[in-house]
Amino acid sequence: MLSSGRLSVLALTPGAGVPSARFRWQQYVGELRRSGLDASEIPSRAGAFAPGARGLRPLWLAGSLAENFARVLRSNRHDLRFLQRPLIATLRTWEPLLRRPFVFDVDDAIFLGPRGGSADRIARSAAMTLCGNAFLAEHFSRHGRVEVLPTAVDTARFTLRAAPLPSRPVIGWSGTSSNFRYLHDIEPALLKLLKSVPDAVFKVVSDRQPEFRLLPPGQVLYERWTPEREVAVLHEFTVGLMPLEDSLWARGKCSFKMLTYMAVGLPVVVSPVGMNAEVLAQGPCGLPASTTDEWVDAMSFLLLDDAMAVRMGRLGRRIVETHYAQNTVAPRLARLLRSVA
Fold first, then answer.
1. What is the mean pLDDT of residues 56-79?
2. Same domain? 180 vs 142
3. What is the pLDDT of residues 269-296, one digit of tens each?
4. Whole-angstrom distance, CA of residue 98 vs CA of residue 81
5. Is this prediction's pTM over 0.90?
């Protein structure tokens, strides 16, 4: 509807710095524009998630509803809308006012929980639901057209490590503090590993420092996550970890952490849950682990066999370049957007 003569696509995202906005929309904008689409974004300033302090929630909700009403009206001036998750988490609010067609983008199992039906109702109105993995697509296929679009890695940023392996083995994990529970689940395995390889350290990169009951403080390192160090800190790892529980919520995870490790050439040890298992099946880029002994054995193997670790890391990089790289996924996104406009 805008006058540029190009198909205009506006993304409604949960916030400019939110990972899903960064990696499922913002990193594609340049390629979408080069392909002839007029791609833009209105990120939420209030955010899609309620504040932790209950006393602030009524005021936040009122402000968020007002902001989102305005965002929806602005989006309706464009040819196509790209709605990333519900406007307000777990709720269906102004989505019925979105002019059709619109695309609904989902990268978590947001259909779970007591208000999960709100996501299903939004999907029924969408021209297409883009899902980050096959598990999500299986669910949303009940409500209309779905396409699997993995969360891509910018392989021009997440580059192979040029320096040699760290002199001191570094078992690494990078992620948000909301996922610390997965680290606590493998804490006994980490303790055994650190005892058997006394010069090894476990490094956590996150928004806050974790608290471990069992791990020796002298073998645990913490670094606050920053965008400036997002890639460089992975280059300092020897092995990348992605533990998960085997739950419906975990099966909705899109393995982005695992893919970033692989993109920089790290071998991985991961829980073979959901998409993690699918990525592992594409080649020996790492090892699966479910029990404490399996975690210990897998980490020990990769720390003690440098040559194998390097081979697995290089293969992981090739898998990402072939299937999950930004320059591979972005053209497909452009085609999918055109197909519903």
1. 97
2. no
3. 999 999 999 999 999 999 999 999 999 9
4. 8
5. yes
Q: In one letter, which amino acid is 126? A: A
Q: Do residues 69 and 206 share a domain?
A: no
CB 142 within 8 A of CB 167: no
User: Environment class of residue 60 by beta-carbon count within 10 Å: exposed (0-12), middle (13-18) or buried (19+)?
Assistant: middle
Task: Tell me how far apart the alpha carbons of residues 228 and 294 are, in angstroms, rounded to a whole number.
Answer: 34
Does residue 120 share a domain with residue 21?
yes
pLDDT, tens digit (0-9, with 9 covering 90-100), for 129-156? 999 999 999 999 999 999 999 999 999 9
The domain containing residue 122 runs over which residues? 7-151+327-340
What CA–CA distance (Å, rounded) separates 318 from 325?
A: 10
| Residue 161 resides in a domain | no
Clarify whether residues 175 and 282 are in a common domain.
yes
The total domain count for the chain is 2
CB count, 10 Å around CB of 292? 16
Could you tell me if 61 and 188 lie in one domain? no
pLDDT for residue 5: 66
